[in-house]
Amino acid sequence: MHLARFPRVRLAHLPTPLEPAPRLGEALGLRLFVKRDDATGLAGGGNKTRKLEFLVGAALAEGCDTLVTQGAVQSNHVRQTAAAAARLGLACEIILEARTGSKAADYNGSGNVLLDRLLGAAIRTVPGGTDMNAALEEAAAQVRERGGKPYVIPGGGSNAVGALGYADAAREIVVQADAMGLKIDRIVTATGSAGTQGGLVAGLAVIGADIPVLGVGVRAPKPAQEANVFKLAQETCELLGCSGRLEREQVVADCDFVGEGYGLIDQGVVDALTLAARTERLILDPVYSGKAMKGLIHLARQGRFAGETVVFLHTGGAQGLFGYHTELETYL
Predict the structure, then answer these.
(1) Per residue in 92-145, pLDDT tens?
(2) Taking the CA of residue 326 as centre, how many other CA atoms within 13 Å lie in the half-sphere pointing to its CB?
(3) What DSSP assignment string belongs to 246-314?
């Protein structure tokens, strides 16, 4: 897997730690390690930074001067894209979708939204259900009309170029595990726009590491989520010149922990946030890593991972907690 063939801008603090979580693991009856991709370092870090290294690398290689992207109001991806643009002196146009329908002042003005503004991004908010691909193209057209050259980044940075970041993370995890003498039985991570799980699955397939990845869904039903991940993982393998390495059964998502919908919290999410914080001082977010931990806790207590060594990929996003301050107060 020769990633130096692809344009790349170094934005992340890599490698991120792979560290034991003994108290949380004991509570769940398994041997647990945490891959700390909350510690990638870009404006607070998170998993999107790995994707942006390749996406922004491609943007600069094409001579673009403006990053254009979209996400939900409290999008971690948008925050990290705005930070990458600020770091490199690029303009940044972002579209925020009011996906949850929340009218709360903290949700719409604090957390990631406050950081987007601090980082200097131009922000436009659209109603939930908007055709976001069309909105991206409209924003890109406006940049061109002003004489700029846009580079459009899909939601979550999730295309084959962005997924290269998690193909690289798969290699990184295996190298760290080998150095630690650690045999990993399973990786568990949140899965939404598909780039993180798709990149991991592709990277593990390309290097021949037989480690299953369980994606805990945060939005789509299981059939749609697995189809999206498999398609993106295939495209990533093709980009790497390794078509045919991936089997459909290597893509597994459990979408039973979405709750009432994307970005909506419940007691199970709050319990997961609390347990991670009070056993391992891990600060999770309510949208992605919190729901993934909710799934891990539930499945572990059912005996699903008995005797296994599990790596939980922490995708970051703690900055979004402040957008849920009012709502979380009713649970804590």
Answers:
(1) 999 999 999 999 999 999 999 999 999 999 999 999 999 999 999 999 999 999
(2) 10
(3) --GGG-EEE-TT-TTSTT---HHHHHHHHHHHHHH-----TTTHHHHHHHHHHHHHTTTTTT-EEEEEE
User: In the prediction, which pLDDT does 332 show?
Assistant: 81
Q: Give the CA-trace dihedral at 46, 20, 291, 228, to 10 degrees.
A: 70
Per-residue pLDDT at 72: 97
Q: Give the number of other Cβ atoms within 10 Å of residue 43's Cβ.
A: 23
Q: Which of 1, 112, 8 is nearest to 50 (CA)?
A: 8
Residues with a known catalytic role: 75
Q: Indicate the Cα dihedral angle 246, 20, 37, 313, nearest 10°.
A: 40
Tell me the three state secondary structure of residue 218: coil
Cα 159 to its chain centre, rounded Å, is: 12
Residue 18 in tokens? 């792979």
Q: What is the pLDDT of residues 253-270, one digit of tens each?
A: 999 999 999 999 999 999
Burial class (CB in 10 A: 0-12, 13-18, 19+), 228: buried
